[in-house]
Amino acid sequence: MDSQLMSKADPEWQAQLLANYSSHIFVSKVTQGPDTSSADLMQTVIESSLAILASRAEISDLKSHNAMLLQAIGYRQKWMRNERESLDCL
């Protein structure tokens, strides 16, 4: 770690760093202890994997929907320009 960076009082660098950081933390419902089986832990891993896949699918759907909306905005803007030009000609 850069000691000069850490000594700066300005929190801007911290905000920039956090803006680029993302994570998900999964906590097992199963308490690890002497009676925890490997099947219980495997079930937790499977549930976590399914949650990640569901999140990725949702993100993909949202990106697709966003692209569709942006395209619709583009069409409407073009239509409005054409209408303005038509009105200007009158």
Share of residues in strands: under 5%
Major sheet characteristics: none
Q: How would you state the average pLDDT, rounded? A: 81
The assigned structural class equals: mainly alpha
Please give the alpha-carbon distance between the first and last residues. 68 Å
Radius of gyration: 25 Å
Oligomer: single chain
**Coarse morphology:** flat
Helix content: over 70%
The run of helices and strands is: HHH
User: pLDDT under 50 segments (min length 5)?
Assistant: none
The count of strands amounts to 0
Total DSSP helices: 3
What is the topological layout?
Layout: H1 3-7, H2 12-19, H3 38-89
Which features does this protein show?
single chain, 90 residues, mainly alpha, 3 helices
Structure description:
72% of the residues lie in helices and 0% in strands. It has three helices and no strands. The longest helix is centred in the C-terminal third of the chain and has 52 residues. It is flat.
